[in-house]
Design goal:
79% of the residues lie in helices and 0% in strands. The radius of gyration is 18 Å and the shape is globular. It is an all-alpha fold.
Length: 227
Amino acid sequence: MGNLERALKYPFTGEGWGLKFILGGVLNFLGAALGFIPYLGVFLWLLFSFFPLGYAYKIFRNHLEEREGPLPEWGDWGDLFRRGWYVFLITLGYGLVPGILYWAGLNFWYEGGLAAFVGVLFLILGVGMSFVAFFLWPMALAFYASQGEFLAATFQWKRIIEKICLVQSQYFSGWVAALVLFFALLFLKTQLPYIGWILYSFGFFYLSLSVANLFGKICQEALKDEL
């Protein structure tokens, strides 16, 4: 629990953490707000979101390589954008099949009758696969970072599972904590009009920094013989 406690405090440590944290939250919020613009909304949302995503990945990689420290300075925006783009691609790769199954399940459900029964099966399968994908994702990202940032490294599932088994207790505890926090943020976003979006934007940035810190250390322990 020591690593988890430190990870939860990490976004609020180091000199000048306030401005660094606020900037990431503002970028997330701007992306979410601009996402409502017709047609261009998705593009603008991604454009702003890649920066805080790349920033969190930078923290993850620093801790994976045992270069621990407080929140880094914002800068080299092109590099942050590029790193955020690749993290997004990895996330998309892991979420694509569960997302398709869930989407198909909803469509079958709305058809009613026998199709609704099939839809329930697809929904259950989609949700189940999304949990599995989210469970593998941190170690997959560690493989990506430790193997020259090649996207193919993220799909070495057999080796990913083997490495997770080496740190299974810490890994599972971190995964559950991240999942609980994420669903809490979703609750705020859906239940609190307007203010919920702001809380979610800043909360998601906080979660990404904490997860980067926590899993950077956990994955470093699992991969220490290969780094």
